[in-house]
Amino acid sequence: MPILKRKPRTLADVPLAPDLKYKICLSGAAETNFPAPELLEKSEEIGRLVAQKGMILVTGATTGAPYWAAKGAKEAGGIVIGVSPAYSKAQHIKTYHLPLDYHDLIIYTGFGYSGRNLLLIRSSDAVITVGGRIGTLNEFTDAFEDQKPQGVLLGTGGTTDMIPEILEKAHRGPGKIVFERDPEKLVSEVVRLIQAEEKELMRSRAI
Questions:
Q1: Within a domain: residue 50?
Q2: Least C-beta-crowded within 10 Å: which of 35, 53, 96, 202?
């Protein structure tokens, strides 16, 4: 029986799967004792906008801004995926005291907050940052190092409003980042960044 040799696949042979939905991560303040005015309302609006544009919202399966974004997305008929620091549902609830509602699926990583943050960012096509403290800044820098498209909602307080100064003093370039104060404009600009990456990928396939 003759042995069939498989032809090596090239990049051009791999389908782009244009029907895949974009996954947008909402990174922000889980702590609700120090929110900027309207932070939670703006987070909810971002979640709603993500759902209305037919995209999937990804969160850290936590409280605060990500929770309100999940609420906005679900109430708009969207899909929400959570990435938990816990290794099980029981640990998610009993140890981390994190919610389950407003999510379609929660992935239990068992990697704690820092490990969860990296998986959260790498599971997303783009990241939107609102408010936040050290954990939010960690997620921002993870996304920056991975050259992810990012949107930063200015005026939401915390480490988010420090990002322009951090980028200036870090001397690492501007990254793929857009800054806005309006949630609707920010989401639209983030989608534009993702689409620009898709076009660049198409061009690279043709080379």
A1: yes
A2: 202
Domain harbouring 122, CATH code = 3.40.50.450
CA distance 127 to 24: 6
Distance set, CA 87 to CA 79, 93, 109, 122, 195 (Å): 22, 11, 5, 18, 34
Q: Report how far residue 60's alpha carbon sits from residue 148's, in angstroms, rounded to the nearest whole number.
A: 17
The string of pLDDT tens digits covering residues 165-176 is: 999 999 999 999
Domain housing 41:
20-206
Q: Give tens-digit pLDDT for 158-199.
A: 999 999 999 999 999 999 999 999 999 999 999 999 999 998
Q: Based on the structure, what is the number of domains in the chain?
A: 1
Q: Is position 13 within any domain? A: no
Q: Tell me, yes or no, whether 14 lies in a domain.
A: no
Smallest CA-to-CA distance from 68 within 164, 183, 182, 148 is with 183
In a domain, 80, yes or no: yes
Instruction: Report pLDDT digits (tens) over 9-27.
Output: 555 555 556 678 999 999 9
* Tokens linked to 125: 């096509």
If pLDDT is split at 50, 70 and 90, which confidence band does 1 have?
low
